[in-house]
Amino acid sequence: MSFNDLASLLDAATSRFTALMSDIHAEGRAARVVFTGGTAGIALLERLADEDIDWSRVEVFFGDERNVPADHPDSNEGQARAALLSKVDIPEENIHGYGLDGGPMDAAVQRYRELIGDGGFDLHLLGMGGEGHINSLFPHTDAVRERDAMVVAVTDSPKPPAERATLTLPAVQSADRVWLLVSGAEKAEAASHASDGAGAADDWPVAGAIGRKETVLFGLRVKKCVRNRGFSRIDL
């Protein structure tokens, strides 16, 4: 799905998210949703704060987390709380953070593995980097090659900080629906590997982001680069 601007992208994602939650709740069960960070991801959460959603029946997880406490400015959980979770009536026990604190990560990663079990999420929201990384799964790393564990520790992230915990491709692929929220012309090449299903996940991690029932790319419409009098312009 392509949009002319970020506002239109967020409108569509917000409407679709709200409808999905309503459908799941109509089935008489809670929804299991994985949040993402990034510009579009946090902007979506801010939009959702104004929607009519029964947050008491939403279980929130996080695709990845930096090895910092939740009250640190770089924490994905902390950003999600500021953007949405502190503004809606969601029970604290429905918010499942990693519990990282800057120290050793192994115990926290093991707890998160036990918490999510075999995964089985209703929706996994994802952002994407220009090189195609999703969560903290970067090209040509051990984490993106993981095929068994649902959660792993990352100690060598090429994007600072180096230490993180992340859901793996098996965890992403356990979700019924995977929605990619992509903004920025510099991400066009990586996005093509998601939308076309091209490329190996080792080269382009986003190529492995496939939902069991649905995979949707919410992206900005990118036009050709126009060169004029020595200047380059990319129109979105």
TrEMBL record:
Residues 5-213 form the Glucosamine/galactosamine-6-phosphate isomerase domain. GO terms for biological process: carbohydrate metabolic process; pentose-phosphate shunt. Gene3D superfamilies: 3.40.50.1360. Belongs to the glucosamine/galactosamine-6-phosphate isomerase family. 6-phosphogluconolactonase subfamily. GO terms for molecular function: 6-phosphogluconolactonase activity. SUPFAM superfamilies: NagB/RpiA/CoA transferase-like. PANTHER family: 6-PHOSPHOGLUCONOLACTONASE. Pathway: Carbohydrate degradation; pentose phosphate pathway; D-ribulose 5-phosphate from D-glucose 6-phosphate (oxidative stage): step 2/3. InterPro entries: 6-phosphogluconolactonase_DevB (IPR005900), 6PGL (IPR039104), Glc/Gal-6P_isomerase (IPR006148), NagB/RpiA_transferase-like (IPR037171). Its EC number is 3.1.1.31. NCBIfam families: pgl. It catalyses: 6-phospho-D-glucono-1,5-lactone + H2O = 6-phospho-D-gluconate + H(+). Keywords: Hydrolase. This is 6-phosphogluconolactonase. CDD domains: 6PGL. Hydrolysis of 6-phosphogluconolactone to 6-phosphogluconate. The lineage of its organism: Bacteria, Bacillati, Actinomycetota, Actinomycetes, Mycobacteriales.
